Amino acid sequence: MDLQPSPPPRDLHWIFQGPNGLRAGWSLVLYASILVVLYLAAAFLFGAWLGPAPSGRLPPLRGLLGESLLFLIALFATLVMSRIERRPLLAYGFRDRALAIRLVSGLLWGFAAISVLIVALSKLGYLALDRTSLSSAAALKDAALWAVMFLLTGFTEEAAFRGYPQFTLTRGLGFWCGALLVAAVFGFTHGYNPGESPIGLVSVVAISLIFCLSLWYTGSLWWAVGFHASWDWGQSFFYGTADSGMVAQGHLLTSHPLGPILWSGGSTGPEGSVLILPLLLIITAGMFLWWGRRVRSPFVGAAWRPLTPSSHPLSDPSCSSL
Fold first, then answer.
1. Which residues pair with 58 in a beta bridge?
2. How many CB atoms lie within 10 A of CB 274?
């Protein structure tokens, strides 16, 4: 009787490796692990900079130091993954030939949007605005410190949520499946902010999707960085409102919410007001009218299905010509 040789045992490397390298799920686990380990280490060594201010009001220098730490953590985690995947560091949403235009445009959109919301709240009697006693020199110094701090916030949060994770989820699940998951995680992390509210969390999730929409249209995160930075700067420094429950120390104007929390936002700030929801719809419509009819998304082939890294638009600098 002829004996057939038994087949060799199946190599289990396929669990971790796909046709395009480390599978998306494991890549995200590794990326998240690096972020968590570095954050815990930073919290142990520099907890005074990362925790909430004892007075309840965040000084600009403390905020700047804390955000610088978070920026370095996000940068290092992305750098490690870029080396593993053999991609340029800027490939995850920051390669754009029109980056200056995107950034400035986002800055203008963000400040205009928060100004519309603040004016609406004020005119409807849900917010009182007054001048502070800051001198001109102090106001200029605080304005600059908060501007740098919130620009770092824009870079950090866009890179940490809609940079490498969105890139990886797009190749694993598809762009919009990834965007929904990123928005849910983004909202979950903001749930730990003191003073956050249900409406505030809904608006955080919606804003995350708006930032993903800008990535969908432009192929980069520069517009989102600018919008994110100026929106937060407008709330915290210029108008002096709470930002997801955080109150800045040193602001140009001072504000007080009035009336029902559902309309005023209460301790959450303008992001906790139900009035933010129609504003976000208007912003989305404006993005569609500005970009939707003029450009073809670099992600159009991966809206709801995975896209292989070899053809991923974030790795192709030509997508920035949109």
1. 248
2. 15
Q: 3-state secondary structure string, the chain?
A: CCCCCCCCCCCHHHHCEECCEECHHHHHHHHHHHHHHHHHHHHHHHHHHHCCCCCCEECHHHHHHHHHHHHHHHHHHHHHHHHHHCCCHHHCCCCCCCHHHHHHHHHHHHHHHHHHHHHHHHHCCCEEEEECCCCHHHHHHHHHHHHHHHHHHHHHHHHHHHCHHHHHHHHHCCHHHHHHHHHHHHHHHHCCCCCCCHHHHHHHHHHHHHHHHHHHHHCCCHHHHHHHHHHHHHHHHHCCCCECCEEECCCCEEEEECCCHHHHCHHHCHHHCCCHHHHHHHHHHHHHHHHHCCCCCCCHHHCCCCCCHHHCHHHCHHHHHC
Tokens of 41: 């280490």
How many CB atoms are closer than 10 A to CB 229?
27
pLDDT of residue 175: 94
Task: Identify whether the C-beta of residue 193 lies closer than 8 Å to the C-beta of residue 246.
Answer: yes
- What percent of the chain stands above pLDDT 70? 86
pTM, whole model, 2 decimals?
A: 0.89
> Locate tokens 């142990």: which residue?
44
Tokens of 274: 């139900």
Identity at 144, one-letter amino acid code: A
For residue 251, pLDDT over 90 is answered with no
Q: How confident is the model at residue 169 (pLDDT cuts 50, 70, 90)?
A: very high
Please give the structure tokens belonging to residue 99: 């980056």
Look up residue 92 and give its amino acid.
Y
The per-residue pLDDT for range 265-301, each reduced to its tens digit, is 998 899 999 999 999 999 999 999 999 888 888 898 8
Dihedral sign, CA of 82, 87, 88, 94?
Answer: negative
